[in-house]
Amino acid sequence: MIAAGVIATSPKQAMHLRLAEIAGRLRALIREHGPAAAAVEDVFYAVNVRTALKLSQVRGVALLTIAEAGLELGEYSPLEIKTSVVGYGRAEKSQVQMMVRSLLQLDCPIESEDAADALAVAICHATRAAVERELAR
Q1: Coil/strand/helix, residue 8
Q2: Domain end (from 33, 57, 74)
Q3: Domain assignment of residue 63, yes or no
Q4: Crossing angle for the helix pair 78-85 and 113-136, nearest 10 degrees?
Q5: SS3 breakdown of the chain: % helix, strand, coil, rounded to 5?
Q6: What secondary structure does DSSP assign to 54-97, as a single string?
Q7: pTM score above 0.85
Q8: Best CA proximity match to 42, nearest among 68, 79, 7
Q9: Cβ 116 vs Cβ 93: under 8 Å
Q10: 62 and 94, same structural domain?
Q11: Are 70 and 84 in the same domain?
Q12: pLDDT interval class at 69 (50, 70, 90)
């Protein structure tokens, strides 16, 4: 792990400004760290329609930023991610957080469930990429 965290914006800001801030900060992170690939969680079911729409807008900004940077993209369902990291597709967030910490051999807890989820997506992508490379041999 090189870096992990959460891009938080003010809920008082208009949505278009929040999306622009997220895009700008993602671009800065890509420039700073120079990743070879990116991975995101597939669209998932949400009980609250307004929350689902907002998450979809943020996901769209992330996908656009990744495409602009020319990065390889992996997209995984929550079931695939949890199975890859925990070994069980219906794992709780706390189980994912604990396994991410264990797999990355971190001394301290991950700052948030969202950061742990993002790391789980990265671990899933790295694992899948390694398996695909082996199978291609």
Answers
A1: coil
A2: 74
A3: yes
A4: 80
A5: 60, 5, 30
A6: HHHHHHHHHHHHHHHHT-EEEEE-HHHHHHHHTS-TT--HHHHH
A7: yes
A8: 79
A9: yes
A10: no
A11: no
A12: very high
